[in-house]
Amino acid sequence: MPLTIKHYGHADAPALREVLLDIHDAVYRDDQDTFHSRARFAEFVDSWSGKGSWSCVIGYDGDEAVGFAYGAAFQPGGWWKGSPLPQDYGSEATSFALSELMIREGWRKTGASSQLHDALVSQRAEDRVTLLVDTEHPKVQKLYESWGYRKVQEQRPFSDSPLFAVMVKDLRNGT
């Protein structure tokens, strides 16, 4: 199902905030975990979209926003929070953090997630893209692996967060 994909940047964030929160609410409507609450997600949206390098794509089916992906460039170290980088990356390598990729239920398994992912990541100039996947969702991890990501470690970035697989994809060689 081809979507109309629109690209946005840091300056657009205030106008997009409610759209992102509404899609989040639709995706997590039955989840009672406070980590997935609207208020907590709003903190993440505000933090990430506050970065000058923040980039977002939203997929539309007609006028309806059905999903989004966003992220920003990382400072050296990325998700690794001071632990050693994977050995195949030098200390000068740059990283783009794919922070969120969400698709409303009716558009899952239609190719919408790969369309949004590719639209966001294909325009990045960084050496690699990184993301976190809840280890309780192995099918999602397998999906990212099919897109060229590999798991490099696990971490729990917040005391109330799930344990995440840290995944990396090389962008230097067009993969």
Automatic annotation (TrEMBL):
It holds the Pfam family Acetyltransf_10. SUPFAM superfamilies: Acyl-CoA N-acyltransferases (Nat). Transmembrane segments: none annotated. One of its GO terms (molecular function) is acyltransferase activity, transferring groups other than amino-acyl groups. Residues 14-172 form the N-acetyltransferase domain. This is GNAT family N-acetyltransferase. Signal peptide: none annotated.
